[in-house]
Amino acid sequence: MEREQFISGQSWPKVVYGTTRRNMPGVSEGPFAGFNLGLHCGDVLEHAQANRERLKELLPHAPIWLNQVHGITVYDADMQQEQDKTADAAVTTRADCVLAIMTADCLPVVLSSEQGQVIGAAHAGWRGLCAGVLEETVKVMRQKMAHLGIEQQGIRAWIGPAISYDCFEVGEEVLQAFTEFDQQIAQFFKPHPRHVGKWFADLPAIAKYRLEAQDIREVELSHYCTFQNEQLFYSYRREAPTGRLATFVWKTTIS
């Protein structure tokens, strides 16, 4: 397999990132058909593990798999001692780390300092996004940037394939959770045309808005919808059970 099979965005200095596709060569079957990388989504374990073995051809190091719980904890991959990997984001300055995020509609968000000294990845479902997982990730990255003496550098971000505005139907409680502390976020919700009390939420736009509020001006959206494109992506909202995509980011010496 070739690394170019990943879905990615603009090139970044000394950083490689991207999201897998379900139609990459894989062995999973049924609702998991294709390149499922999730071990705990209902797929035959041997199939998912075989796909992970194939994945090794595309990565320079074994990925750091997190136990994602829709929270805001950030895993510090620079720490040498063994840590609890129950987290929804990871940050590193190391060149031998591949950060990984699993999704099937939620937002995968990749971040990097301008010259690639510090990288991060975050899993942002609506709960984590609302609670501040992106802000926590940026905070840890800036702490590391300060330690390296590169506070003057900015941070860039890429928001990968996720469920789109027209497909993510939510209840009133989601709108209230987001707007409780920031009424401006209401602009990213539109009422359902047929069901009172139901809304459509634009998660990628909310993530962009929240990142820009952290003074991150270079934010790129993939504009891929996981729900609408069954050939390329798994989608929990479209089909459950289903497989999992993975988004990776790592540092490289190549600019």
Short description:
With 255 residues, this protein is an alpha+beta fold.
Low-confidence stretches: none
- Judging from the principal axes of the Cα atoms, what is the shape? globular
Largest β-sheet summary: 6 strands, mixed
Report helical residue fraction.
10-25%
Class by alpha and beta content = alpha+beta
Strand order of the biggest β-sheet: 3-4-7-6-8-12
Let me know the average pLDDT.
95
- Number of DSSP strand runs: 13
- Strand portion: 15-25%
Number of helix segments? 5
Gyration radius over CA? 18 Å
Q: Encode the helix/strand succession as letters.
A: EHEEEEEEHHEEHEEHEE
| C-alpha termini separation | 23 Å
Description:
By secondary structure, the protein is of the alpha+beta class. The chain is built from five helices and 13 strands. A hairpin with a 6-residue loop joins β10 (189-191) and β11 (198-201). The longest helix has 16 residues, at 133-148.
SSE arrangement:
Blueprint: E1 15-19, H1 45-55, E2 63-64, E3 74-76, E4 89-92, E5 98-103, E6 107-113, E7 119-124, H2 126-131, H3 133-148, E8 155-159, E9 169-171, H4 172-179, E10 189-191, E11 198-201, H5 203-213, E12 218-221, E13 245-251
Parallel strand pairs: 2-5, 3-4, 8-12
Antiparallel strand pairs: 1-13, 4-7, 5-13, 6-7, 6-8, 9-11, 10-11
Comma- or semicolon-separated keywords:
255 residues; 23% strand; globular; four-stranded mixed beta sheet; alpha+beta; six-stranded mixed beta sheet; 5 helices; single chain
